[in-house]
Amino acid sequence: MNEKIADIFLEREKQTLSPFAFLTSNTRGREKTYAPCEIRTEFQRDRDRIIHSRAFRRLMHKTQVFILPKDELYRTRMTHTMEVTQIARIIARALRLNEDLTEAAALGHDLGHTPFGHAGEQVMRKCFDPHFSHAAQSIRVVERIENDGEGLNLTWEVKDGILNHSGSDTASTLEGIIVKYADRIAYINHDIDDACRGGIISLDDIPAPLLRTLGRGHSDRINTMVSSVIEASEGENRIAMTPEVGQATDELRAFLFRNVYLNPKAKGEENRAKEMLEMLYHHFISHSELLPSPYDRIRDEEGAPRAVCDYLSSITDRNAIDLFTKLFVPQVWNG
User: What architecture is the 5-261 domain classified under in CATH?
Assistant: First the structure.
């Protein structure tokens, strides 16, 4: 081909993106240098590496909020990731920011999430490190665990967006900051949907002023929040929400913590999931020779606690239950 397709994309970015967008040609690059791809830019390659990774596929069997629901319509960590990515791309496109960077960071933001959602995260904080976070663990996945220990070798900017998508940390690019907003918009709204489906709350439980500001319907609320981000950020070197919608969004999130995330009815199996993971953690600390590759190499290089944390953080809810059953539940003797 006379002109590389990737070069056409790079030139198009320079001509069409906002002056506040992060251009792919300005990437800090990767830890390991690879020959450029003729048909994809660096952030497009990162997107593909994430989608084809084992960690990404495991997200379909990891808890979002409700542990092991029978109804297939409840969100999983995979469907959450897809909703975050869709919202993030809408915002990036409207603001003429780098959609490929935004998409890659959004797709990778939860790769390090533990089984059983935040319950598993709490176990890792108790057993391994009080500073454990799924965001930092996602970086472990893409640098140290995936590809049989070789990692995905992602660009610096995509990893920065993954690492700083939650908490008080802020990504270095506007695209990375969009992922933080999209994550919150997605989980607030789909968790309301799932909580109503599960009979934990009803829409009438949500304070009426919040519904008047944000909208009563699922799509109405998402549209309000997304439009608010676009309105407050357009033509600015920042990502923000308009004050009224931002305050209502924060209050709705606080409502969810009080009425859903800490609700015993929604968390009925959480304590047993935590106990199970704790027992698995201590078992593999005592029997670290049982760790599969690449966790055996991590054990030899960084110690058993780090390796056991990496291993248990990577497995799915079903893997954890199967492991526990195999190790601790007596089997029926058939004689």
Answer: Orthogonal Bundle (1.10)
